[in-house]
UniProtKB/TrEMBL annotation, chains A, B:
It comes from the Bacteria. It comes from Evansella tamaricis. This is Sulfite oxidase. InterPro entries: MoCF_OxRdtse_dimer, OxRdtase_Mopterin-bd_dom. Residues 235-351 form the Moybdenum cofactor oxidoreductase dimerisation domain. Residues 42-214 form the Oxidoreductase molybdopterin-binding domain. The lineage of its organism: Bacteria, Bacillati, Bacillota, Bacilli, Bacillales.
């Protein structure tokens, strides 16, 4: 009965199917251990056996190809450190409230993924004329809308599918991909919200039309109006965003120096600056980027800010990240299904 | 890589000191496994060694007594199934918001505790004239206010200390008390919020005055006004309360029969009825108490309600428990430190 240690856990949002949030406020590393990866399933876990260690490339290709994990491992690979973020991350913060998984800040993780660029595999198969999209289907399936046996299927525009960083991954953080995160083979689409990175990959099909499956044209679509489906557009790239990891929301601080720390990320590539405000956005001061050994185009930036506060009272700390295309907005872009929340992060504290 | 199962975890609220919430919405048993007990520490964990297996009874007693765990085990014991609830449970629901641990519904657990009635131990020591309170001190200590080495100390009025159900416990759920929950000896005060049930018990002192330590007269006090300390009174008994465990807040339901289930509890003893409303409290219907094998005066009541809902739309499901003294209020009793939240439980759902 010596000194006891304490550790964080995943935060359970649902069990059937399993949905768990990363304890992002209690993580300090930049490559997160798999055990703290958030989990978001649409269906029960598929039964993965040896026969599932193969993936088919079919559709509008010259030479359909059926490859095994062992073959994939023989091809030249790339390793990319990247953020995977659920499109619904921070959904609980929308006002008016949006139904669905009530994610706080932890539907995000960062890992190191190794795989073969899809373009290299499509170079083997060749691509037929008129190819428009590439469709990816996972082994996971279940009830969706009126279909009792829908698969999880998503497509990418052909240009994104051929991007050299779109990979057919077989390793995560230097090991086999964990079962719950898409073993043995997972599509990884850096820079896009994570619904694009199809888990338990079963087949790849080059198609000449726009795919209209339910996870493409019903879910993962921005519907900006309360009572109509007008002006909708698909969820794709990760919005520029930041999270204050410490202090915790509605915590109490002592007067004096308080370390504020967090992360900032974007699907558009590097974060150019992170700013902090504690006067509700009237003035902003630059946070300091931490050298964290992760320099990928798709990785988050860790930052700190030393806040010297002597006057007791209630404060709101704001963080705002900026990338090459712009900054986080003060207010979120509300949409019916609650995707892509990226308003400046607000953390309420009481200085005593 | 066969079928994978999923399980809930504690929800981390803080690590130093450790504060973790029970995944109450995903628990179905009525005696909760220790691993799902919420954790609320005020200080770092104490270093418990063999020398801490003894407790002193001192102060205004005729015969001071120093007993060892082994002696305690020889005395006649009682076993009580009971709710332990943090006074801050549901604090995150207060409006205006209150700073402090942002507990949702899970700062509560139910266990089976075995121990010796304190009154039997005080019969051995005798009680001196003018005894007013009994003071309990745990081994945990740390910085509190201006004191760098404050202990966690709390007192009970002499009448409550002598109540036959106030026990010096040494077993929980049929085993030794888990380290994180107060091993080897913990005071258990059934019916009171859990700050009264002092962990890692070190000493018991009969005193002739009112104890005014910081966990008695600063924390764990209701301050009903925003900007004054007037009308304050101590946190003691658990308020009548209920929680809807399923469905989850802001979840989506299918039309037809939906099972609503939850728990109801009170420090005043048995719950006489649990009612459900889905028209914002205009009409109420009785939920059904589940026979759950737990019949203690201090245990929660499990309940279910079969909700037949055919009209799509957004609804709020309300649950309201009633005990011998009254019902949960529609609005909470706001107080500065956010204790004792017990407004009717509200769960927002969207029926599709």
């Amino acid at each position: 009965m010596g000194k006891q240690s304490s550790r964080p856990f995943l935060m359970t949002r649902n069990l059937h199917p399993e949905v768990q949030e990363s304890p992002i406020h209690f993580l300090k590393k930049n490559i997160i251990s798999n055990e703290f990866f958030y989990i978001r399933n649409h269906f029960p876990y598929p039964n993965i056996h040896q026969g599932n260690f193969e993936v088919t490339i079919e559709g509008n290709v010259m030479y359909p190809y059926h490859f095994h994990l062992a073959q994939l491992r023989q091809l030249p690979s790339v390793t990319i450190d990247l953020v995977l973020e659920c499109a619904g991350n921070k959904r609980s913060k929308f006002s008016p409230k949006v139904h669905g998984e009530q994610w706080e800040d932890g539907a995000i993780h960062q890992g190191s993924w190794r795989g073969v660029p899809l373009k290299d595999l499509l170079a083997i198969t060749g691509i037929g004329q008129g190819a428009k999209e590439v469709l990816f289907t996972g082994h996971d399936m279940g009830e969706k809308g009126k279909s009792p046996h829908a698969s999880f299927s998503r497509s990418l525009p052909i240009e994104k599918a051929l991007h050299p960083d779109t990979i057919i991954a077989y390793e995560c953080n230097g090991k086999e991909i964990p079962y719950k995160h898409g073993a043995p083979i997972r599509l990884i689409v850096p820079g896009w919200y994570a619904m694009a990175s199809v888990k338990w990959l079963k087949s790849i099909a080059v198609i000449n039309h726009r795919f209209d499956g339910p996870f493409q044209t019903d879910d993962y679509v921005y519907y900006p109006h309360q009572n109509s489906k007008e002006d909708s557009f698909p969820v794709t790239k990760i919005n520029v965003n930041s999270t204050i990891q410490k202090p915790l929301n509605y915590s109490k601080l002592k007067r004096g120096e308080n370390l504020v720390r967090g992360i900032a990320w974007s699907g558009n590539g590097p974060i150019s600056k992170i700013e902090i405000s504690y006067d509700n956005g009237v003035t902003w001061e630059k946070a300091i980027k931490e050298k964290n050994g992760v320099t990928s185009f798709y990785a988050w930036e860790s930052w700190t800010y030393l806040w010297n506060i002597d006057k007791p009272g209630e404060y709101v700390i704001l963080s705002k990240a900026t990338d090459s295309t712009g900054s986080q907005p003060l207010e979120p872009f509300w949409n019916q299904k609650g995707y892509g929340y990226n308003a400046v992060h607000r953390t309420h504290v009481k200085v005593e």
